[in-house]
């Protein structure tokens, strides 16, 4: 048996009984720019170095070549996110590689619904535990970027600042940014272009009452308002509101007295 490649328990080989060949092998060595501050799939220790090593290729599975096509496909499910060295022709190629994706296409079925032919496309990437967003323990059916890895920064990077959370409170002037009032009606553009004074905040219900009693007198979602600038507040105070019932939800406004 002639062995073409190997990764963990998987082997690409050609023999008189079975053929699982590797095709379209592709990889690259890419230099990163100076002052690299990106961490998603990048090495954090390099100010001038290389991106994480990628590797991809395809494999044709054919039942006529001694391969149980469906069984071979299903065996790869548990291996997504696993890490191992990749050997090509008996020699190690690149650093430790994590299997990121296995795509199945060009599937051919027989009259009984059995898979007779399929193409597998593999995507590997160098595994760096400090920067990867896909951990080894992650289920193959639930692969997603982790919040901590997305927000990770190099220790030397002192320019990043944490956003200051601003609390909306009664008396603030805000602008609605959403499409709907909390009661379901569409918010017209003229409402979103003006600043409105906060009368009441209900954090537990994620809503805030604006323009009561002399304005739009409407509930909007708390997470869909932004604090207004001094100039926009001044403009809204001096502007003519006109008929405040236009574009306002036609429902009773309930106000809690505290």
How large is the count of helical segments?
4
Instruction: List how many beta strands DSSP finds.
Output: 15
Distance between the termini: 82 Å
What do the pLDDT scores average to? Answer: 80
Instruction: Give the SSE order as H and E letters.
Output: EEEEEHEEEEEHEHEEEEH
Structure description:
With 258 residues, the protein is mainly beta. It has two domains: 2-147, Elongation Factor Tu (Ef-tu), domain 3 (Beta Barrel); 173-238. 10% of the residues lie in helices and 31% in strands. It has four helices and 15 strands. The strands form three sheets. The chain has a five-stranded antiparallel beta sheet, with no helix packed on it. A hairpin with a 4-residue loop joins β12 (196-202) and β13. It starts with a strand and ends in a 20-residue tail after the last helix.
Helices and strands, with pairings:
Layout: E1 2-7, E2 10-14, E3 19-20, E4 23-27, E5 54-62, H1 69-75, E6 83-84, E7 86-88, E8 91-92, E9 97-109, E10 115-126, H2 147-151, E11 173-176, H3 189-192, E12 196-202, E13 207-210, E14 218-221, E15 225-227, H4 230-238
Antiparallel strand pairs: 1-2, 1-7, 2-3, 4-5, 5-10, 6-9, 7-8, 9-10, 11-12, 11-15, 12-13, 13-14
Can you give me a brief rundown of this structure?
With 258 residues, the chain is mostly beta strands.
Describe this protein with a few key phrases.
258 residues; five-stranded antiparallel sheet; 4 helices; 2 domains; mainly beta
């Amino acid at each position: 048996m002639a062995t073409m490649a190997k990764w963990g328990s998987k082997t690409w080989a050609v023999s008189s009984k079975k053929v699982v060949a590797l095709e379209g092998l592709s990889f690259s060595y890419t230099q990163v720019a100076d002052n690299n501050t990106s961490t998603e799939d990048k090495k954090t220790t390099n100010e001038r170095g290389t991106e994480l090593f990628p590797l991809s290729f395809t494999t044709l599975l054919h039942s006529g070549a001694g391969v149980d096509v469906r069984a071979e496909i299903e065996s790869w499910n548990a291996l997504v996110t696993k890490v191992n060295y990749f050997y090509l022709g008996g020699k190690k190629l690149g650093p430790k590689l994590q299997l990121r994706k296995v795509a199945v296409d060009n599937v051919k079925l027989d009259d009984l619904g059995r898979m007779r032919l399929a193409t597998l496309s593999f995507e590997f990437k160098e595994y760096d535990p400090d920067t990867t967003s896909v951990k080894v323990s992650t289920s193959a059916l639930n692969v997603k970027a982790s919040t901590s890895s997305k927000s990770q920064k190099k220790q030397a990077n002192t320019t990043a600042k944490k956003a200051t959370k601003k609390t909306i409170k009664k008396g603030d002037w805000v602008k609605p940014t959403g499409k709907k009032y909390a009661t379901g009606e569409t918010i017209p553009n003229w409402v979103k272009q003006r600043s409105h004074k906060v009368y009441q905040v209900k954090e537990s219900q994620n809503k805030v009452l604006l323009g009561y009693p002399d304005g739009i007198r409407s509930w909007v979602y708390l997470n869909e308002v932004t604090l207004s600038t001094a100039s926009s507040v001044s403009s809204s105070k001096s502007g003519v509101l006109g008929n405040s019932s236009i574009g306002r939800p036609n429902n009773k406004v309930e106000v809690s007295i505290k």
